[in-house]
């Protein structure tokens, strides 16, 4: 099988690429806007696991990036069996103080590009009657948290969009899975190394290798959606009813932990 992984140069995306190669023997098309890191990742995976790994530089934060990626794969004769939509960004900022370019970046990366990639490759998979699509949401999809308002909203889109797509594509032989984890131990949230170690020790945050291992099992077992961790699963309904006073306190506290 051949897997297309976005955001594959670091963090969770890189771990998806590694486990798809090591545990499932997949050839890879790795996509990221970090060219040097992406090429290094592809070389490491080819050397260590003996699979084919192609590094493709692309800025998925552009509105037409999905069409450009699809055109590239079509011209190269690449028809992925698996698509992992992992590329993402995170920032904590009051909305009216956020640069318009950053807002557009997040909307394009989390909403427009994900939706278009699913449309283009989903049709291709449906026509041949097989394929797998995995999209990355977040527990924050259920939170009305100031400071990360655009992130929350885009992750809510991914979650509901993916579940709807599951019902549409499953009869056509295409599996769609969405993961909605809590905190994951990567650099995405800008926490200091000390706080990252503390979060893992308290099991508030989980290592990316554990998340990815579970996500791929969910995908190949045909699960629609998953939120890893018993505490996270239990907390999910509560997030919809977080009291206003607690949100105000959290808004004041969270910013100081950012880089």
Task: Tell me what the structure shows.
With 259 residues, the protein is an alpha/beta fold. It has a single domain (2-257), classed as Rossmann fold (3-Layer(aba) Sandwich). It contains nine helices and nine strands. The chain has helices at 11-24, 35-49, 65-75, 100-128, 149-169, 193-201, 208-221, 230-239, 244-254, and strands at residues 2-6, 27-32, 53-57, 82-85, 131-136, 174-179, 183-184, 205-206, 225-226. The strands form two sheets. Strands 3-2-1-4-5-6-9 form a seven-stranded parallel sheet, sandwiched between helices. Strands 7-8 form a two-stranded parallel ribbon. Strand 2 (27-32), helix 2 and strand 3 (53-57) form a beta-alpha-beta unit. The protein is globular, with a radius of gyration of 18 Å. It starts with a strand and ends in a 5-residue tail after the last helix.
Key features of this structure:
alpha/beta, 7-stranded parallel sheet, Rossmann fold, globular, single chain
Helices and strands, with pairings:
Elements: E1 2-6, H1 11-24, E2 27-32, H2 35-49, E3 53-57, H3 65-75, E4 82-85, H4 100-128, E5 131-136, H5 149-169, E6 174-179, E7 183-184, H6 193-201, E8 205-206, H7 208-221, E9 225-226, H8 230-239, H9 244-254
Parallel strand pairs: 1-2, 1-4, 2-3, 4-5, 5-6, 6-9, 7-8
Helix pairs in contact: 1-2, 1-7, 3-4, 4-5
Concise synopsis of the structure shown:
The protein is of the alpha/beta class and 259 residues long. Helices cover 52% and strands 15% of the residues.
Strand content: 5-15%
- Distance between the terminal alpha carbons, to the nearest Å? 40 Å
Query: For this entry, what is the oligomeric state of its chains?
Result: single chain
Question: How many beta-strand runs?
Answer: 9
**Which structural category fits the helices and strands?**
alpha/beta
Query: pLDDT average, as an integer?
Result: 88
Indicate the overall shape. Answer: globular
- As a whole number of angstroms, the C-alpha radius of gyration is 18 Å
CATH C-level name: Alpha Beta
Helix content: 40-55%
Residue stretches low in confidence (pLDDT < 50, at least 5 long) are none
- Spatial strand sequence of the major β-sheet: 3-2-1-4-5-6-9
């Amino acid at each position: 099988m051949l897997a297309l992984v976005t955001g594959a140069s670091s963090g969770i995306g890189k771990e998806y690429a590694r486990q798809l190669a090591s545990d499932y023997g997949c050839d890879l098309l790795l996509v990221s806007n970090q060219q040097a890191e992406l090429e290094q990742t592809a070389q490491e995976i080819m050397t260590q696991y003996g699979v084919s790994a192609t590094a493709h530089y692309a800025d998925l934060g552009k509105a037409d990036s999905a069409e450009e990626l699809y055109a590239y794969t079509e011209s190269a004769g690449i028809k992925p069996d698996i698509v992992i939509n992992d590329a993402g960004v995170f920032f904590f900022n009051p909305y009216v103080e956020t640069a318009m370019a950053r807002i557009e970046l997040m909307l394009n990366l989390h909403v427009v590009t994900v939706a278009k990639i699913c449309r283009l490759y989903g049709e291709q998979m449906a026509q041949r009657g097989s394929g797998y699509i995995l999209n990355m949401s977040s527990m924050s999809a259920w939170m009305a948290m100031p400071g990360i308002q655009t992130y929350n909203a885009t992750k809510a889109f991914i979650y509901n969009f993916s579940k709807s797509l599951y019902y549409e594509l499953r009869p056509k032989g295409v599996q769609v899975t969405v993961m909605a984890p809590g905190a994951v131990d990567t650099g995405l949230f800008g926490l200091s190394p000390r706080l990252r170690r503390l979060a893992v020790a308290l099991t508030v945050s989980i290592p990316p290798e554990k998340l990815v291992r579970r996500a791929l099992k969910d995908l190949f077992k045909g699960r629609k959606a998953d939120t890893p961790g018993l505490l996270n699963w239990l907390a999910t309904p509560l997030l919809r009813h977080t009291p206003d006073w607690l949100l105000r306190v959290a808004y004041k506290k969270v910013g100081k932990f950012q880089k």
